[in-house]
Amino acid sequence: MRETLLEFFKKTGRPHRLEEILRRFGLEKREAKAYLKALVREGLLEKKGSQYFLPARVQGPISLHRDGYGFVRLPEKDLFIPPGYTQDAWPEDLVEARIMPPGRDGKPWGVVERILKRARERVVGTLDFRKGYAVLLPDEPGLPELRLIPEGLHGLKRGSRIVVKVHYDQRPYGEFLEYLGEGDAPETETQAVIAKYGLRAEFPEEVLREAEAIPLEIPEAELARRQDFRHLRVFTIDGVDAKDFDDAIHVERLPKGYRIGVHIADVSHYVKEGRALDQEAFLRGTSVYLPGRVLPMLPERLSNGVCSLRPHEDRLVLSVLVELDEDLKVKRVRFAEGVIRSVARMTYTEVEAFAEGFGLPEEHAFLAEDLNLLLDLTQRLRQKRLEAGSLDFSFPEVKVEVEDGTLHLIPQEEPRARSLIEELMLLANRLVAEHLVNKGLPGLFRVHEEPLEEAYGKLRTALARLGYTLPEKLSSKALQRVLLEAKGRPEEPVVANLVLRSLRLARYAAENLGHFGLAMEHYLHFTSPIRRYPDLVVHRVLKAILRRSLTPAKKVRWQETFPAIAEHASEMERKAEAAERELTKYYMAKWAELHLGERFVGKVTGVASFGAFVTLKNGVEGLVRLEALGPYTYSEEALALLGPKGKRIRLGDEMEVVIASANPRLRQVDLVPYVEEASARSKSKTQKGQGKEVDMRKVVGPPKDKARDTRPERATVNTVYFGEWAPREEKAGMHRPVDTRAKRRRRRR
């Protein structure tokens, strides 16, 4: 209805009173006012007196093209800003633009009038000297060169990587903050990414002191106060390299059904609201998993210590106890503060092997019956969820491991084991959300709104070109049907990516707006308080209910502060994702440097007027430029590159390619199509190519002949996207905006 109302205002182009809306659409007065109020709050409508009307000005982040024009990104349709009308905005700055009457093409355009918020306070780049001045050449494409004040630069050489604070004066200038190193060494790039996104690498002394003061032993009085689950077969399932175990599970057979226990580390017992630990956790928002390095939300004494559900040690938990009937309908839910003693620390690898018919290690054999039952229950729960319309994206996952500065890409193939844990966590998250909503209590919800009409329309058009149909009326079931139809076909990853890119980003909100992707009316994050701040906040609300300590004053305070917490948590999550993605792209370009001239088979995952993007089996993506392909032209209608004699390059096609070049600093990999002549020319560079595809096992997985006693940190990515490709004629080092394709984001549920 919100979209219908907005379209009505656009068609009429004039103000309307509430009474007109009521007559036109037959709405209840309270309902209509709620819709209109929401549109006003989002800046899509304005209200003056008793009239509602479309705003003459809009606000949104701006994207800029190297030719001087830009677009203000809006919830409905982006507003074009011609060259000369962008003021002094930088990419991603939040701006206010005045909408101008349509030009000869009949399309509206805008003029940037104010810059409301700068997107960046600091910039990372390379130090240079020009005509007696120090300047910064930003790493980020699209940013201008920045003149620097001399303070702090003494002794630094040309080519040093530094961080500067930006002062937005009439002519912006930079102030030196930090020296990162020389060149593009992995350590330097890691520090550069941390600085670029404003991530917090070190804990303040005050926070560490508070953490160290936490006793390792649980007082007897606290144990006596809680429900004792230590007699149950509670266990954890995590990755081989996991160090923080924040969820444990157990299952029991009942006369007419089952009882499932999801036990989550009681972080809120140790991290008190308003204390130094809590303030630092809020600022971080989330743990950040970079290749080769982890920036935890909480100090190690908590994340890997008293809050980690280690086997054979007493741990405090907040538990969700669910009773299901034979048809897996929820009969009863109970929440409890408890204490557990995990009987085993299992890995996804062990559970996956068990699911495939292999036995368990001897020390875990006693859990075989429980695992069999859980594998069956969770597969049935998953099937019910999919039947309800929950979207299932089966992207291949790759573990990114950095060892001694070298990257290894390890395919992750534990679908049933991971699905077991995912279904139980989804169940617990949903039930906690329903409980808060039914009680009318404040919460931090994980919301995912349905796609905008324009995005859905583009998706329908794109899928139709690939032979898939969607109904005019949007539904998650229809999207799920298309994903199932594409399963196992060459274009499956392309269809999944098109659907994913049409969806809005999931985010945190203080109001319950439902989760479109999961087809759930109520949903939040509860199961990872060690690494996500919103989960910790939800724990506090639930415990206040259990202890009957939620006073009216506290309820009002939470209702007032939760919107800001939700916005900050969403922002930090986006920064963490961007940092993980960018550093992974750097390491993948470094990997490509080591395999120049080698031949691989990949799939076409994108086509554009300047070439085709090809993704290798290990997740590395590169660009085959148009000039390397020959006389091909881009057809938007066909979503393909059309060549001579009916040849075409389409999304999902396989292509044999050779790695031609790589630029880790720019996160770029260039590929060329494989031909016999190319193989002969590449012999001088490598002896591995010789007309045969390189065995992918040699380029993924742990290095040979190397002991695996100590394992490095790992980050897991669903898909790694490369973008921001400069035309070949542009010289490296020219810092001007470049043409970019739409960015694809991994979405976290």
TrEMBL record:
Catalyzed reactions: Exonucleolytic cleavage in the 3'- to 5'-direction to yield nucleoside 5'-phosphates
PROSITE patterns in the cross-refs: RIBONUCLEASE_II, S1
Coiled coil (UniProt feature): none
Keywords: Cytoplasm, Exonuclease, Hydrolase, Nuclease, RNA-binding
Biased composition (Basic and acidic residues): 690-714, 726-741
Gene Ontology biological process terms in this record: mRNA catabolic process; regulation of DNA-templated transcription
Domain S1 motif: residue ranges: 597-674
Renumbered residue ranges of the record's region Disordered: 678-749
Gene Ontology cellular component terms for the protein in this record: cytosol
Compartments where located: Cytoplasm
Any Pfam family: OB_RNB
Keyword Membrane: no
Main localization of the protein described in the UniProt heading: cytoplasm
Gene Ontology MF term list: DNA binding; exoribonuclease II activity; RNA binding
Role summary: 3'-5' exoribonuclease that releases 5'-nucleoside monophosphates and is involved in maturation of structured RNAs.
Family, as annotated: Belongs to the RNR ribonuclease family. RNase R subfamily.
Protein name, entry field: Ribonuclease R
